[in-house]
Amino acid sequence: MLLTRQELNNHPHVHELLVHSEDLIGAIIKHPSRPYNSAHMVTQLIKGVYVREVRTMASEENGSHFGASSANMQQLEEFSIEETTQTMKSNAPGLWGLLGILLSEDERLGSNEDVVMSDAGEVVDDYYWDQVEAIELEGFINALTSEGDTVALKRDIHTNRRAAICNIKKVVILSIMMQSMNQKSNALQSIIGIFLQSMHTPQNVVDTLARIGILISTDAIHAAVKSMSAESQNAMQELGQSLLASYAYDNFDVDLKSHLPVVEKSNDSLKHLTSGLMFPLRHGITIDDLKCSEELWKQSALNTQAIEQDLPPCRTWKDLLSIHSESEVTQNLSTSWSPFSSACATFTCHKHSLTPNFCCVTD
Question: Any residues with CB less than 8 A from the CB of 162 and at least 6 apart, and which?
Fold first, then answer.
């Protein structure tokens, strides 16, 4: 009655009960004369708390919704497993702590019957982390475990590593729960799905992980890729229309070998393709800085409408010799060198093979 009457909320006994509520509930459950269903009743109450926590995390206000049909690059760039970890920890502290206990995150909370990592397990753990050392996960582990001190990291390296992996597992488990509660709460599943799509993961693997709840469906992945492709196309169009872009093209060959070669098409596997890249002009470049194109076109020999007086004089290789005057350091060097003499020397050694090249130089 003390806890149900609002006028007694500030009563000293009510405050005392609330402060020691954990000890009180534990004593009731462990009491030999407790009702048979007392533990079940407590479990039902805790279930309600956990359900509310998952529902809160799965809400749109929590930022866990990832619309595949309207996906954009900003969502990918802003996604952070570290921020997701902190968000889940703050919105679902009870469930987050429970998962930590079930995953043996804190071995001190377990009993003597709990499975503790053995020496052999530590050796296997060391071998695993040595294999992935090249991925540079130190910063990622530090962010998840809030351990930025190098000395502390070296001292508790095994604990920190297990804590990082445990946090990742808890994020995945809670993400599966959130998607089960609300199908639109699929941020982690979408990110992993897009990543596996970019890595050309086999279709049956993607379908299996989608059924488990780790990925979104294949159709949703394709919709997200299509949406981001359209966004990229629009961004490229805007960049091109701004006239503040540079273009680069490259020719390359691809040998598309068939799994089942056919005699009639045995020589058609080599494809000649051209790739194009767009580079935005940075460092404060404006359109006014690029208004030299008209002046260059007036003086271009390729311009059929150019005025003869505007065209610059024709230059030859001899003009290269006068670009830099000889300095005092190079006065002792021979002044008789020229591309012509070099070509002659080459021509003398390879008279029969370089005659066409020699003609091009002299012309």
Answer: 105, 117, 125
Smallest CA-to-CA distance from 102 within 173, 35, 32 is with 173
DSSP H/E element including 248: strand 245-255
Q: Which residues contact residue 319 at a Cβ distance below 8 angstroms, ignoring those fewer than 6 apart?
A: none
Strands (E), 270-341: 270-280
Cβ burial, residue 137 (10 Å; 0-12/13-18/19+): middle
Residue 250 scores a pLDDT above 90: yes
What letter does residue 92 receive in the DSSP assignment?
-
CA angle 270, 274, 275 (to 5 degrees): 125
pLDDT in tens, 67-125: 888 888 888 888 888 899 999 999 999 999 999 988 876 554 444 444 444 444 555 55
Q: What's the start-to-end Cα distance of the chain, in Å?
A: 110
Considering the entire predicted model, what is its pTM? 0.58
- Whether residue 347 is predicted with pLDDT greater than 50 in this model: the reply is no
For residues 179 and 54, is the Cβ–Cβ distance under 8 A? no
DSSP assigned state of 313? P
Structure tokens at 303: 């311009």
SS3 content of the chain, % helix, strand, coil (to 5): 60, 5, 30
The set of residues, in sequence order, having a beta carbon less than 8 Å from that of 17 and lying 6+ positions away, is 2, 3, 24
Instruction: Please state, in angstroms and rounded to a whole number, the distance separating the CA atoms of residues 170 and 95.
Output: 9
What are the residues facing 277 on neighbouring strands? Answer: 248
Helix (H, G, I), strand (E, B) or coil at 277: strand
* Residues 49, 25 contacting (CB under 8 angstroms): no
Task: Please report which helix (H) or strand (E) contains residue 245, including its range.
Answer: strand 245-255
CA atoms within 13 A on the CB side of 187: 26
Residues 278, 240: contact at Cβ < 8 Å? yes
Distance CA 363, CA 358 (A): 9
CA atoms within 13 A on the CB side of 13: 7
Taking a C-beta distance cutoff of 8 angstroms, is the pair 142, 153 a contact? yes
